[in-house]
C-alpha cells in the first residue's frame, strides 16, 4: 500500500496496491469486509462521499463502488492513467487523467430517476473545450 487509508464509520478503505484491489477492512478487527478488483494497479487513496467510494486505476478508469458492499455502481474510462484521488463535491467526482483532461463525473438521480453520469461527462467536455478556445484567443492576441 502506497497511500493513506480512508476511515469512514467502522470501515477502513484502501487502494494503492499492486494486486489491483480496493479493500474495505473492519476497523476493529482488520478483517476484509469486501474487495473490488480492477484490471490494473491502484496508486491513490480512495475518496468517499455518502455511501460511495471513488477510486481510479492504471487501467484508465475511475470506479464508484457501494461503500458497504463493494459492488460497482459505475465506472468511467479515460484516455490515460489515473494517479491522484478524486475530489468529491455534491456526489460528483472531479479528477485529472494523464490524457491531459480533467473530468467531472457523477451519479445523481434526475426527476425521472435516470442516472446523469453522461450529463456530467458532457459538461466537463464543454468546460474543457471553452477553456481551450479562450486560451487560443488569448495566445493569438499576444502575437
Structural commentary:
With 143 residues, this protein is α+β, with helices and mostly antiparallel strands. The chain has a single domain (6-142), classed as Lipocalin. It is 18% helix and 36% strand. It contains one helix and eleven strands. The strands form three sheets. It has a four-stranded antiparallel beta sheet, with no helix packed on it. A four-stranded antiparallel beta sheet has the order 5-6-7-8, with no helix packed on it. A hairpin with a 2-residue loop joins strand 9 and strand 10. The longest helix is centred in the C-terminal third of the chain and has 26 residues, at 117-142. It is elongated, with a radius of gyration of 17 Å. Mean pLDDT is 81; it is low at 109-114.
For the structure shown, list the relevant keywords:
143 residues; alpha+beta; Lipocalin; 4-stranded antiparallel sheet; 1 helix; 18% helix; 36% strand
Report helical residue fraction: 10-25%
Number of domains: 1
List unreliable stretches of 5+ residues.
109-114
CATH class: Mainly Beta
How much of the polypeptide forms β-strand, as a percent range?
35-45%
How would you characterize the largest beta sheet? 4 strands, antiparallel
- Assembly type of the chains comes to single chain
Taken from the alpha-carbon principal axes, the silhouette is elongated
Radius of gyration, in angstroms, nearest whole number: 17 Å
Class from secondary-structure proportions: alpha+beta
> End-to-end span in angstroms?
49 Å
Provide the spatial order of strands within the biggest beta sheet: 1-2-3-4
CATH third-tier fold name: Lipocalin
Order of helices and strands: EEEEEEEEEEEH
